[in-house]
Amino acid sequence: MTLSAVGLRLRLICKLNSVCVLVVLGAGHPMKPHRLSLTHSLVLHYGLYKKMMVFKPYKASQHDMCRFHSEDYIDFLQKVSPNNMQGFTKSLNTFNVGDDCPVFPGLFEFCSRYTGASLQGATQLNHKICDIAINWAGGLHHAKKFEASGFCYVNDIVISILELLKYHPRVLYIDIDIHHGDGVQEAFYLTDRVMTVSFHKYGNYFFPGTGDMYEVGAESGRYYCLNVPLRDGIDDQSYRQLFQPVIKQVVDFYQPTCIVLQCGADSLGCDRLGCFNLSIRGHGECVEFVKSFKIPLLVLGGGGYTVRNVWYFHFLNSPSFSLLLCAEYFEYFAPDFTLHPDVSTRIENQNSRQYLEQIRQTVFENLKMLNHAPSVQIHDVPSDLLGYERNDEPDPDERGAEDNYTRSSHTHTHTHTHTRTHMSPFLKKSEHLLEKKKKQNKKNKTSPVPQQFSSGVRASGPLVQLLLDI
């Protein structure tokens, strides 16, 4: 199967290795941004960049971040550093920056990069430049409006969804991180424009302590918040039997026009901070199932604290990909040195059939309370956050085919009636590529690229599995 045969228009939005290699939250800190470099290396060595378009990330500004966060908090993140943090003692406490969310060199730059990449992906989906946008550094779902939380400083998910809402009447957010997506739920708890669905470990004081199935939203958002609390040791079969029917019902009832999928890999077995027993294939099946709805999709990363799990990619029907081609990070695959590390644990599956059935019935009852998919009245569309022209500096990574790397990644500005006042070089190139593809399809007597479909991936588990079946 080829990309043209299934009509994929896949764009990989993030290339963060040059930034993330330098980011260290602390020697003993479980969050390792270095994992993104490993993912990038796999993409290069397996030639996956040839099957997608790779863009350097837009750097989110302070103004972009303040679409959700308070100005005082973002101003603090921009100013604080390890060298001057003694002068911010009160602010460190106020904004919950310390042990779990430490100050480190390049903090604001890191936040700007991963937030900008997610925002860039949302903008490209809005303008139908791609069907699936991927930012494997994004998905920091714990950050709150006024504070950092759970290794998360800026909530790129909320900011991206706000951008998607300019064009999409209904956005579905799905979270498969082992930790509850509390920051995103809190942001959209009172609205029906965004439906949040989170599958997570709940109970026994597990962080963040929220996500009970009876947290269903409030006011206009009542019943548009769906939580699926799980117990220790859930395996692939149990997870699948719950995930697929729940998500299908949600899509049928809510009819989203865009989906944001947070793919935290800490739900895999053997994770340093996790307690589930999902395999890499099981985790990847969730991504594949969401992709099957053929709805515009923004795929983001998330948690994942055992490096060999997090940077691995799952390739369906590709036996040759069981061998390693990544020499520079080969030692991270110890002790088995394969792309399918054994992540099984001895944790007993405490999710009985009765418990899973109880959750499923409760979820379905809540969905029945949704009378219809909410609509949005005709209104002027605010200008894009990325409506500007800029020139990217040359990419320092010289490996791979340069023709598959696009240096500039702008989106066009437009009037409130969707009439473009000018076309950026990026959009011109994108439309040129699509037009070229249509002519090729016509010549080969195949159907043109459909308007809605795709696949995507990320560093947080089996995510390049969206390149699958190729």
Automatic annotation (TrEMBL):
Its EC number is 3.5.1.98. Residues 409-421, 435-445 have a biased composition (Basic residues). A divalent metal cation binds at residues 177, 179, 266. Residues 1-26 form the signal peptide. It is found in: Nucleus. Its main location: nucleus. Coiled coil: none annotated. Residues 446-457 have a biased composition (Polar residues). One of its GO terms (biological process) is epigenetic regulation of gene expression. Residues 29-310 form the Histone deacetylase domain. Residues 385-460 are annotated as: Disordered. Residues 387-405 have a biased composition (Basic and acidic residues). Transmembrane segments: none annotated. Pfam families: Hist_deacetyl. Gene3D superfamilies: Histone deacetylase domain. Belongs to the histone deacetylase family. HD Type 1 subfamily. This is Histone deacetylase. It comes from Myripristis murdjan (pinecone soldierfish). The gene is hdac3.
